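#struct-pred

JT: dropping the chains for the assembly here, can someone run the whole complex?
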Amino acid sequence: MITAIGDTVAANFVSLRQQQSGLGFTRYIDTIYKEVLPVAEVKHSTEELSTMAGVPSSPEYTRTTLLGLLAMQEALQQAGIKDLQQEPTGFINASTVGGMCDTEKVYFDITDPEKEGDFLKYIDTLDCADCTQRIADTVGLTEYITTVSTACSSSANALMYGARLIKQGVLRRVICGGTEALTRFTLNGFNSLKNVDKRPCRPFDQQRNGLNLGEGAAYLVLESESLVRENNSVILAELSGYCNSNEAFHPTAPSPEGDGAYEAMKNALAMSGRSMADVQYVNVHGTATLNNDVSEGKALERLFGTQVPPFSSTKPFTGHTLAAAGAIEAIYAVLAIQHQVIFPNLNYSEKMEELSIAPETRLLEQVPVNTVISNSFGFGGNNASLVISKYEG
Amino acid sequence: MKGKCYIQGLAAITPQHTFEENLFSQPLVSTNTNVFAVTEPDYKTFIPANSLRRISRLLKMGLTAALKCMQDSSLGVPEAIVTGTGKGSLQDTERFLKDIRQYEERALNPTPFIQSTYNAVNGMIAVQQQVTTYNNTFVHRGFSFESALLDSMLLLEEGISHTLTGAFDEISAEHFYIKSRIGHWKKEMVNSAELYNHLSPGTISGEGAVFFTLTAAPTPKSYARIAGLKMLYKPSPAALTTGLASFLGRHGLAAKDIDLVITGRNGDNNFEHYYRQLDLALPQVSQLPFKHLCGEYETAGAFALWLGAQILKAQQVPQQWFPMASQIPATLNRILIYNHFFGEQHTFILLERIAAPVV
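RK: done, full complex below.
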């Protein structure tokens, strides 16, 4: 994985433990909000990213692709996969705006018949499939590939779809996740919705005033138990439950009682076979928008009653990375289980009046964490919850 | 890739008069402009006037096709909405890009941003029909619709009652121009009805919104059975041939068991060789190309599935659309659909007549 707080999973874990946020002002987006709206930007130029990924610096490799490629390379290495041809391997990627990060800079040249040049190579990168295919082609993924786009829940849905392909025996190994680069397009989109805070975001705080956007990419290698046994692979965690449910309420706002979040968490937990009491940590969607945190908080209270487990939003570290968020936070859930830690919800000071619960603000270490719920909710009422558990054979 | 499922309802907004009743009496619509736009239905019947004003063209097309499909199946609210789109709402994306430039990032109207989100149509159907269950959108060029189809087949296998599965894409003048710069379209204007007689670089562009209601078990109303689906990513010529053979083999079929092939042929000589390979693999089987009816776009595969389902149910080919067709078997039990998108995403769909005898 790669995010504003680290180029690798290990580096992310270090920043999380040191409570080091990735928020700051952009160095790479051309926007009037450059010094107004904080973002969580990966601290490398696009040229540097291409060097890191070992590919030529050229229009074919957009920032979206490069972030994804770096995360993919790490995922393959960490899973010990040297030859992708040994086992048919699917790739389910997620993206919200594809190569927009680069195409928005040349779009009006592309549409101008008077202009010619290398920028025409960006035309292929206008859609969401381009990054998926570049990543697949670079590392040699030749089996089934596809791309999911359900706004901010995209990569959670990619993970779910991959898990279901494995469960039904279509494939034994699927690599799932998402990639997202900051763009002027999305920054202005969320800003036009008055959803972006000028300060570092404050999830679940009474004074919260919106989200900060972020960028990054993350992939998880999902394998069937039979394949794991054959290869003696190391199991980091089990994706034990998942649910996608829809609010059917509003194009961009969640229902005030959190119906969709409640259904998604409840059903995912039921599938996992774990009880409420088994859930030791919830990595909430927690964007710090006015609506999300009320809705998600209500859903937590409805589901867990007075026994709401420790929960925190890691968005103050990474910003809201949209299509990548589900996969980034799924890895954080795995890290929480591996290292028996709960990550702090930064920037919190005042309890929300609508809720009786408050997020965990301390870094908790050496606490039992065997079952984690990870939430991702998006536009179009799209709600996805994942249950990630310690693998117990 | 997965088990079988049944088409219980369908609806299509395409350049042809597919939204009307009785497609067998509809004339062939053609174009001379290399841009095949849909024949738009009267949206007012499906969408209240106050909503109609607010939503953009692709959302109207998608929502209306979805609602009509639900009417056609009369199975009520689906338990899942799964869609594919290559480009989402192009007009909204274009508009938001222009607004950002024109208004210098200030006081922007969020509506185009919201509607440019690829799952906007799904969200709208869910709100309108109060579908609170599974909802997903795939955005992978020539695999967009077929991935939605695979996801739907998984869902039916998992036990849900029925899915609303569809695809939608639009073309705009601006996007037509953009893709002309990388050679997607023919330089010379051709009449769409003559598409296959003009083998040259590029094809003609199209658009459409097509929805299906899918179930795990047949009913007397079923149009057809989807018996198989396979996606091949950038296959080599050899991999395509073996891919087809193993696809048929997995279903216990040989070339002689296929009564008709619907092919994605589009007059583009850059990629014609893939279709020639199919000709060689299935030399005796009658073929119907369909891109002269809808043009080329990412989710044109949904049009082919719609066409195949109609043909199997009616046991006849709409003659007015296929003057070139010859030797169509009197009984049609199995149709193979083969399509690819600019040589990258190749798809096979096996479609069976409900009463087809077991091979």
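JT: nice. The radius of gyration of chain A is 20 Å. Chain A touches chain B through 62 residues (CB under 8 Å).
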